[in-house]
């Protein structure tokens, strides 16, 4: 398991490599990820999603490929406009991702400073951060 750079993008062998990409990206952003978790559907326990985001309002949601359950990342439901969401697609054209969320905390407390939402492409293995934002 290791990240490999091909052109402008990073690729991995599993969802674990997405964790590595979130850590790498967060370090470059100067807000290191203190906690990273995998998104799992509470309804059917699956981990394959379509990933949507609203960059204007800073939020994201996942839609389960198995049961269509919507999972809002953090407090995104309070901010995003469901009619103006970007549907993320990998460079290979695939829209199926496993999703991880990284959180950067303020020093000494568990208050979230920055949120990173990334996807691992189930088809080609590309890993990437599809949206990140400063927590409100």
What does this 3D model show about the protein?
The protein has 136 residues and is mostly beta strands. It has one domain (4-134). 10% of the residues lie in helices and 40% in strands. The protein has one helix and ten strands. The chain has one helix at residues 15-28; strands at residues 4-6, 9-11, 35-38, 49-54, 59-64, 70-72, 86-87, 97-105, 112-121, 126-134. A six-stranded antiparallel β-sheet has the order 1-2-10-9-8-3, covered by helices on one side. Strand 9 and strand 10 (126-134) form a beta hairpin. The longest helix has 14 residues, at 15-28. The radius of gyration is 14 Å and the shape is globular. The protein starts with a strand and ends with a strand. The mean pLDDT is 95.
User: Major β-sheet, in short?
Assistant: 6 strands, antiparallel
SSE ordering: EEHEEEEEEEE
What does the average pLDDT come to?
95
Helix content: 10-25%
Number of helices: 1
Structural class: mainly beta
Main-sheet strand order equals 1-2-10-9-8-3
Radius of gyration: 14 Å
Mass-distribution shape: globular
Number of structurally distinct domains: 1
Q: Tell me the span between the first and last alpha carbons.
A: 34 Å
What is the β-strand count?
10
Q: What fraction of the residues are assigned to beta strands by DSSP?
A: 35-45%
Instruction: Give the low-pLDDT segments.
Output: none
């Amino acid at each position: 398991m290791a990240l490999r750079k091909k052109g402008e993008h990073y690729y991995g062998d599993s969802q674990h490599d997405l964790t590595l990409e979130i850590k790498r990206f967060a370090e470059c952003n100067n807000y290191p990820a203190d906690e990273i978790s995998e998104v799992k559907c509470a309804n059917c326990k699956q981990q394959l999603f379509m990933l949507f985001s609203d960059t204007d309002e800073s939020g994201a949601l996942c839609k389960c490929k198995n049961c269509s359950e919507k999972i809002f990342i953090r407090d995104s439901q309070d901010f995003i406009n469901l009619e103006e969401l970007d549907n993320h697609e990998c460079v290979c054209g695939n829209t199926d991702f496993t999703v991880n969320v990284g959180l950067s905390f303020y020093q000494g407390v568990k208050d979230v400073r920055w949120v990173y939402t990334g996807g691992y492409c189930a088809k080609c293995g590309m890993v990437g951060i599809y949206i990140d934002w400063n927590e409100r």
